[in-house]
């Protein structure tokens, strides 16, 4: 199964709320195939309204399509991993600047992976 979770800074939360399974950091600073690029993240967070969200969404989905077209193997490996394990895509959202989980790149990444791998069990977060 593939889904997302909210990453926390510092030590793990005392309530044990971290998901059990494989947690992967997908923020822009990583090498993850689903990471966004810094510029579009900074642009969205500078003015997180519907207009900048639409620009972020278009730019991010174009980025994923381009990466997938150039090298689908990392995406395929992720899908295989998530078919055999619970895999959680991590991001800091929701945050004060972006309180909407459906306005997070992980939400779009989950939709992208479901379209590319229809048999992949994907769980979108509740909005």
Briefly characterize the structure.
The chain has 127 residues and is an alpha/beta fold.
Q: How would you sum up this structure, described in words?
A:
This protein has 127 residues and is of the alpha/beta class. Helix content is 43%, strand content 11%. It is built from four helices and three strands; from the N terminus they run ββαααβα. A three-stranded parallel sheet has the order 1-3-2. Helix 1 runs antiparallel to helix 2 and helix 2 crosses helix 4. The longest helix has 21 residues. The protein is globular, with a radius of gyration of 14 Å.
Write the layout of secondary structure elements.
Layout (H helix, E strand, L loop, with lengths): L1 E5 L15 E4 L12 H9 L3 H21 L2 H12 L2 E5 L13 H12 L11
Parallel strand pairs: 1-3, 2-3
Q: What sort of overall outline do the alpha carbons produce when their principal axes are compared?
A: globular
Largest sheet, order of strands side by side? 1-3-2
Instruction: Kindly provide the radius of gyration, computed on alpha-carbon positions and rounded to a whole number of angstroms.
Output: 14 Å
Q: Total helix count?
A: 4
Primary descriptors:
3 strands, three-stranded parallel β-sheet, 127 residues, alpha/beta
């Amino acid at each position: 199964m593939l889904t997302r979770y909210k990453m926390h800074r510092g030590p793990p939360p005392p309530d044990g709320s971290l998901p059990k399974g494989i947690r992967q950091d997908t923020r822009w600073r990583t090498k993850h195939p689903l990471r966004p690029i810094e510029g579009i993240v900074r642009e969205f967070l500078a003015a997180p309204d519907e207009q900048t969200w639409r620009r972020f969404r278009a730019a991010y989905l174009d980025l994923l399509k381009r990466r997938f077209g150039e090298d689908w193997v990392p995406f395929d490996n992720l899908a295989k991993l998530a078919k055999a394990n619970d895999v959680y895509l991590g991001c800091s959202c929701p945050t004060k600047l972006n309180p909407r989980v459906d306005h997070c790149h992980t939400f779009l990444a989950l939709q992208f992976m479901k379209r590319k791998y229809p048999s992949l069990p994907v769980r979108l977060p509740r909005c």
